Amino acid sequence: MAQEFVIPLSRDDLLNKTAVNQFTVEEILPLRLIPGALQDIKSALRSPKASVAVDHFDTWFSVLCLQKDVSPDLKEDAWNSVVKVSIVHSNELMVELEGPHISVASREQHLLILKATMYLLCQYMEMFEAEDTKPGTSVAGPKGRGKKKQPSDSMSINWEIERERGVQVLLRTVQLPLCRLWDPPIPEEEFVNMITCCCYKLLENTMISRNKDTRDVIIRVLAVMVKKYNHSLGASLKIIQLLQHFEHLVVPLAQAVELISTEYGVKTVVAEIMREIGRMDPKDLVRDTSGTRSYASFLVEIAERVPAVVLTSISVILRHLEGESYSMRNGVLGAMGEILIKVLSKDDLDNKQKLTRDQILDKLEDHIHDVHAFVRSKVLQIWLRVVNEKCLPLMRQENLVNLVIGRLQDKSCQVRKQAIQLITTLLQSNPFAAKLPLEELQLSYEKEKSKLEEMMPEPVSPSPDDTLTEQTTSSWKTIATKLENYLKVDNNDDGPTEESEPSDEEDEADLITEDDTPVSVAEKLCVLLDGEEFKKVLSLLEAAQEAWPDHPYYHGNCQSSEEPEDEAESQTEDTPHTKNILSTLQKVFVDYKKSRLMSASDVVQHQEEVARRASESGVVNELTKQQVLVQYLKDSMTFAAQVQKSIPLLCQLLTSKTTSDVLETIHFYVTAFEFGVNNAIIGVRKMLVLIFSKEASVKEAVVSAYKRLYLTPQAGNVRAKALSIVKNLTALTHGATAGDITSLAELMCEFYRSGEVDGHVIQLLWERFTLKQTTTMVEESRAALVLLSMIAGAETEIVKSNIDVLVKEGLGPRAETDFQLARDTCLVLLKLRSSEKLKGAVSKEPFRLQKDHEMFKRLADILVGGMSNLENPYWIPMAEQAVNVIYRLGEHPDTICSDIIKRLAGEIISASKTETSADFTVEADNNNDDQQPSAEPTQDQAGNGVSSHDPPTVGCPAGFLTRLLSLAGHVAFRQLVYLDCDLFGELKRRHAVQEEKKERKAGRKSPAGAVLETPATCNRSKDNTREGIEEELGLTGAVAEDAEADYIRKICEQDVVTGLSLLAALRPLLVCVCTNQAKYPDPQLRTAACLALAKFMMVSSEFCETHLQLLFTILEKSKNPVIRANTIIALGDMTFRFPNLIEPWTPHLYARLGDPSTQVRKTTLQVLSHLILNDMVKVKGQISELATCIVDDNEKICGLAKLFFSELSKKGNAVYNIMPDVISRLSDPDIGVDEELFRTIMRYLFSFIQKDKHCESLVEKLCHRFRPTRTERQWRDLSFCLSLLSYSEKGLRKLQENFACYADKLADDTVYECFSSILANAKKGFSKPEAKAAAEELEERVEQCHRKGLEEDEVAEKASQASEAASRKSRGKKTPAKGRKAGGKAGRRSTRKKQFVDSEEDEEDNQSEESEVEERAQPKRGGRKTKPVLFDSDEESDLELFEVDKSLRNSDAENEPQTDAVDKTGDSRSLTETPKSHRRGQGSAKTHMSGRKTRMRPLQNLNSPA
Q1: What's the confidence (pLDDT) of residue 1359?
Q2: How many angstroms separate the CA atoms of 799 and 788, rounded?
């Protein structure tokens, strides 16, 4: 009998013989004998025989056992011999197994050799694989395979090649019909496991995924083992196990499953794997995130490879859609998406497949609103694939678009990104049209719909379907009456007895068999109904509803369980249960009968009848076409309306801080614009400003988008293409705002630098500007000039080489009537002065023209000639740009402008002489006072004035005077800029040039030899040394520059708008117009005069100080919001130029935050934000007024206020320092805001308090504020503020230490809830037991005080009433002296160290007097009073919360001169005079403010002489 090789579980099993015929290893060879034994194997294999495997098995086994000591060369020899003998035996088996019969001895011998060779082959492969994957075999080096191993130490062979060789032998062997070697022909499980475990072991190596050939062979070996050796169940379980531990095996195992299912036809593996995944516990999936990701990815992979096979088992994994693991939900949804795309998107789907498709689509729609952002994002990706593959049913599109639009506001940026991509793809893949203008679609729809209504034929006779419905319905009515009576009788009975119940159950079990279908049961029901066997009908219906609850036939009874049982019992007839049964049976009876009666011949006959009628009338075909057209237009219109609905939401995403939002939105707007979507141009224009984005990707996307939209025309030759580009860019300028123009200018510069706008485009723009093209319109000519101005920002030579063209055309005859053209020409000319300067280099000589240049002559003529053209509103903008050009490009610009002003004055005099009916009268006052000199503007610059006698009354149009004052104001402003910047800059440039020349000369001089010293040379050397030191220290140049700066400043102060200058001659007229509202009521005149006055004041501090009261009077009392807004802007500029003069008037600036005009409030907020953030105004004082803007009715103002505090929070501890002041003022019941608005403001401001030390300090301060509070509202506000802070252990300790401050306030429910939330959150955040114990102890104390307070409410109320009566009686007996004494005490209490009022009686004593003073002193805004305060320093504030302004009362009792004391700190903790150490005097202009009281400067009567 032949020996039997038993597959061992361990190597030691081969050493022990447990059976007579068992093959065992006789001995393990010593290490010294192994080389000789391997040589014997080589000799034996020279005549290849498979029996060598058995004869020399001990040698190979010895190498395995002594592998740690055996050299790599010997291992390689052993491996080669094992592979060779395996190949030899495989060849012998191939010949032997091809024969029809195998002898028993041969079969047993071959089986022995097979097991031995396969055992050795698998063992050696596992040995080499283990050595290859040892951590010690890897070395640090560059990426790649070549540097991974150390061949000299571990292995001498290339295992990647040998591994493939070994698995090829395995595959070659197992592909043979080896089953014939076993009797019965079923291979033993140990043999199958030995081979498959070796394959799985090889797959565990992460490097196997890179070697495709080896991986494919291993996968094929496993597939053969599943197909031929009954390894399907084992493979399924092993695949699940490998997926759990090795993420890199997702794709290889999916390939294996695909191969097994398709090529080898074993589909049960997929079902087993999905069943195992479906059985997994959702809780385990949440814990094992790595394994869950592998399962999810595997599901998607196999669904992509074998979707039809996965579809049959998809139901077993649907339970995971309700699980907690979002990764598994993603996997299941991904698999459903692949099935939908690969299987359920065909046109020839049956009803079952359509139902499955709809169910999958429903699931995908539901999870668009999944709780996890990753799932929402994944689902939108799946929908994106569905749309791209054109697998979306048209009926689903409308609902999908609505769902996607809702995701545009998702809180997750990934979800928003996918939503934008999906809606863009829906637009690109829409089945309707290439252009989707909504208005045109609506017109077409209405037109075609009316046409369809006209084409509708007369009503035809009922169709066979209607006839059959009537027949079956009439039959049912007869049956329904009998059935209803039966049900009534049955409901009145007590029900069946217990003995009859088992028989009923047996009958129900017999009624429905395994072969029955819903249709066959419906047939049975109809037969039973016709036979009036109602009892069996009810039993069969109940059984059918249990068997097929979702089938349309039996779905009607689902609502019966929702009805209350008592209601069903109380009703004796027409109960909901009875109605449900009747409706369900009616549906089954009518539908089934109708389907049986309507045979195919009836359908054909009906169709022939319809065709006959169509041929007779000749209308049906046209009618059908029209119906299709109307439906198409309706669907197109619906889709276009949905896309248009998303435009505003996407506009908001253009300003998102997330780059992906911006990039995807830009892509959407480009697509929408190309498809002609209405309002897409809004987004296209809005993304213009993104050209200034700091993100390079965003800026590049904007440039690419506009290039795609406007610079890629479908034109033929170069000129046609350039013409198309010019037209596109011209269209872009139409309707553009000032911001759009600025952004477009930067975009045009980018296009020019990149070469997109070339010479052909520029040439066409010049041709359009000069009207060389006869078809060019005037607006197009101006647009071409604007575009040239933009391009000139990148290359000034474009303008410099065409100055004559600009003067001839832009300032020629056309400009005399077209002031817009003249203005745009001036803007182009201003590009000649480039402001670029290399760092460290001397500035270039500025480009200037002589004052007699033709350009300045034409500008003067246009200004003077257009003076009388009052209908054209563009004269003033043109005049401002003309003055800019004169001062930027002209030599002696003041001379040019003075001539223009004189000529304009002459025009006014001429007009006043010829004016028959004057619009108003200009009175020339003969008073020689400085405030009102002669108003005649003909005084020249040398001071030659008119006589001082009273001139006659003259009149002129208001427009003339408006333009003169506007021009004069701008000339004054430009003269300031010219002196302060241009002239001073030119002097510095010349000094720099001279210094550079001196340095070059000094560099060329070198000492040629020694010079004899003489007394004269010594003195000269000393002087030179002193000068050299001064030059080295930079003192010489600095002194010179300071002298020049002082001289220029003196000119501005004395010789521009004051003194005997021409502009000074206009001063009386300007002040007169601004002062007399009734005399000069024209709004444009008053606007221009006020703006001119502000520009005059910018020049000279003397002029500014003289007329500052007038300007603030205009700010307060002007009824024109434009004038108030302009004045606010001007005052902001004056604050930078003359801060000491403006500071005493700052309360008037803050008062404009309560202006009724939204425009003025917005402007004021912007100006104050700019001043505060640039450290021109301190951040305390009335900063609470800025805080109230957070809850302004206007959204833009709210956004600006939030932006201000966000930027302020970046300036150190600024927000922390102002918090006490803001809380104090906003919670004051007399001057604060509503409680809900207070909470909104505090939530936003406290979000900037992040540091623990700030939170701890505020906790202590706020706790101390509880004592001086007067109302329950203040308790609630303070407790709410405390609840907004984050608490550390130290912060909680502060809260506990100051428990006495708020203990008596805990009776209030709101206060108690706030403290409860504080302690609840604190306990969650603390990890130390001591901290938690402290929080629990404090919580108990809070609870006790709350309960105690509730019990004493009634007693406290009575005591309060008695106390109020006593205080009223005592207050009536107080003397004024006592009142002042109380005030003095309050003043002493307001110190830095003491933060609260000691006695509440003092507050009550002075409350009435303080409220009266506050009512007189506070400006009102919408019924809310605000307290004027100082701008304080940035140091930390310890202000006294809820303390009223007692300094107001004190100032009334004291002398007026005491108000000159300066208190720059305005420390909010004290409401009286502060210590001198905190005062910061900054000049005499600041001596108008005292303590916490800010004295509002008196205003001037606008109808009185100045």
Answers
A1: 58
A2: 8
